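Example for tutorial group B:
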């Protein structure tokens, strides 16, 4: 796969983390461990219907593992979104300490997530570097609220999303290092989808993830975004800007799809479903006239289910790229 200039630094980060060691096995009480995994399952169902649906296509052991991964990511993200400044930073450091402890405990909701996630990391030999990169990526929201270029934004997307895909592929099983560039690219596409969907919501939190140079190219000021976030007003310039962003994101999905064939066969449909259903959010954004200020783009359950057969067929016919 041909890689672009902005991808090179992301791939170096991915390969550095891949060389880190997985956490040691922790021998937890079986009943407590089952409760921990059940808690992660409930969290996944509550926060992400799409991820919960897609992960349901995995075998039971891998299904509960990816839901533990989701719960770990959700707790990490919530610590930043639900706290501020020094309080959030202290909470993240405390959470990092819980995760890296030799024997995580399950005495509280966060402890249950740490216990299930620690067991998942050990069982599937997930390099600890990926989890630490995710925590660092999420922590950027405490200090950085603007991004100058697409390369800057892609670097952020790697930390908060590509790392998730890199961890997930260890759970699912993958063919080797050739899988890494595809996982990185898919993570960037997924995070860009989040960003395009949540412009209004993020603006309300004081954050603007859209590349400043792209906004300038289309003649869009922050003042206009502030006004649109209040009124839902969509200008021709904004639609043109969003059309450009959506096309770039769809291209990333298309380039990443071939890498799904490097995954273990029993996990391809789950990852393909997650990617294609998330990509469907872009369709809804367009259907909403690119109003991402006062309307939240989401696929209904019936829309998701209608797309599932076509996704299954695509994944069945998927051919692995030729390796050099």
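The residue assignment follows.
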């Amino acid at each position: 796969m041909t890689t672009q200039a902005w991808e090179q630094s992301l791939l170096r980060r991915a390969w550095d983390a891949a060389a880190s060691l997985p956490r040691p096995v922790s021998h937890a009480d079986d009943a407590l461990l089952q409760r921990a995994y059940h808690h992660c399952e409930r969290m996944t169902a509550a926060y992400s219907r799409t991820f919960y649906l897609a992960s349901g296509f995995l075998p039971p052991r891998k299904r509960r593992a990816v839901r533990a991964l989701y719960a770990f990511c959700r707790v990490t993200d919530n610590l930043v979104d639900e706290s501020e400044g020094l309080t959030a930073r202290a909470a993240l450091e405390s959470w990092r300490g819980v995760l890296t402890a030799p024997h995580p405990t399950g005495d509280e909701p966060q402890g249950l997530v740490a216990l299930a996630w620690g067991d998942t990391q050990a069982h599937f030999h997930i390099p600890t570097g990926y989890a630490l990169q995710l925590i660092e990526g999420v922590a950027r929201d405490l200090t950085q609220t603007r991004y100058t270029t697409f390369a800057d934004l892609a670097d952020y997307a790697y930390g908060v999303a590509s790392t998730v895909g890199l961890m997930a592929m260890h759970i699912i099983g993958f063919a080797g290092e050739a899988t890494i560039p595809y996982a990185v690219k898919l993570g960037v596409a997924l995070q860009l989808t989040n960003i395009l969907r949540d412009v209004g919501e993020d603006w309300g939190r004081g954050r603007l993830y859209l590349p400043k140079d792209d906004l300038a190219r289309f003649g869009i000021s922050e003042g206009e975004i502030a006004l649109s976030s209040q009124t839902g007003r969509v200008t021709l310039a904004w639609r043109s800007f969003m059309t450009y962003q959506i096309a770039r994101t769809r291209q990333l999905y298309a380039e990443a799809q071939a890498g799904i064939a490097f995954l273990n066969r029993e996990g391809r449909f789950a990852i393909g479903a997650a990617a294609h259903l998330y990509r469907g959010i872009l369709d809804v954004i367009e259907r909403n006239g690119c109003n991402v200020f006062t309307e939240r783009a989401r696929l209904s359950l019936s829309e998701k289910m209608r797309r599932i057969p076509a996704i299954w067929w695509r994944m069945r016919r998927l051919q692995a790229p030729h390796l050099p």
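The chain has a mean pLDDT of 91. Compare this with the pattern of hydrophobic and polar residues in the output above.
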